[in-house]
Amino acid sequence: MTSFPIQFRFLWFKPLRRAGGFLTLNILGSMETRRKISTMLTRKTPLFFFMLCLPLSRVLADEKKYGLVGKEVSLIPEVSGQLQRIVWKFGDNKAVEWEKDELIDSYREFKNRTSLDVKSGIMTIKTLTKDLEGLYSAEINGYPPTKKFSVIVLYPVSKPNTNHTCSESMCTLSCVGEDTTEGRYEWIKGEKEVVSGNSQLIVQKNNMTVDVAYTCNYSNPLTFELADPVVPFPPESSPVGPILGGIFGILCLIALVFVVYKFKLLNFLRSTGKTTPGNDLEENVAEGNDGKPGNTAYAENGGNIDSSPPNKESPTEEAALLTRDNTETGDSNQPEGV
């Protein structure tokens, strides 16, 4: 016996496409077998296509079902008519079984962890663990399963970490999440725009990227976490800020010096029994003295102060006046009649 290839071209049936749109079968047999197959393909092509596509349709019907560790997942079979018997299998082993007018039986690790709706055939697996991952199928009323479920148990993703390496004109952003099943990355520019589906993102510096935040979204089919935003090109600082800060600092310094001076002045006045700098003048005025020489009777003179300086006489005039005063005094002291 020899092996010979048979090549088909299926441009109209997308699931059967291969590279270049061809499907190649290697058949092991004699030349007689090869002749019979060739005859069947030329005379009974529709029947051959039906037989070929029937098992493929069942394989293509598999469905992925995701569940979180510790949570639950529900498997919904394709049913028709009234249900008499349901058998759910995990791989080739029975997981849950039910027949009409009987109780539901659960086996092995599925005891106390499953529930079965006998009207719809839906099986719910509770408290999921990683060992419950695999293929599930349902036999309804004794018929082979028409659908298989690939159950995948996931852990919630954790918050990713970001790193960035920048030059003057370009930045490379990197996002690192825990290595979990079905994990994927997205980069979000601003608030909504998704710019990349990879763990790394290269950003060129231009007017559209300056002062713009980029956020990494790390997710699996059931959960997601956002990293802290990264601004690769922050806006350049303006000199107005430092100038205003300097002016404000100088004003604060001046105010501080004034407060200290005022505080020390008040302390000095209190230590001398004065409360304000004008107290001495007010007290002197109240006593009739404004503090100026020669003006000691402000109140006695009716409030009029003679500000002219006193007359000063020469020594000769002072001696003559003194002699005159003595003469007058002597005359007045003599007895009458002398």
TrEMBL record:
Matching Gene3D superfamilies, A to Z? Immunoglobulins (2.60.40.10)
Where is the chain membrane-spanning? 240-261
Q: Where in the cell is it found?
A: Membrane
Q: Where does the Ig-like domain start and stop, copy by copy?
A: 144-227
Q: Does the keyword Glycoprotein apply?
A: yes
Q: Which UniProt keywords apply?
A: Glycoprotein, Membrane, Signal, Transmembrane, Transmembrane helix
Question: Region (Disordered) spans which residues?
Answer: 274-338
Q: Does the keyword Metal-binding apply?
A: no
What's an example GO cellular component term for this entry?
membrane
What PROSITE patterns does its record include? IG_LIKE (PS50835)
**What is the protein name given in its UniProt record?**
Ig-like domain-containing protein
Q: Which organism is it from?
A: Albula goreensis
The opening ranks of the lineage are: Eukaryota, Metazoa, Chordata, Craniata, Vertebrata
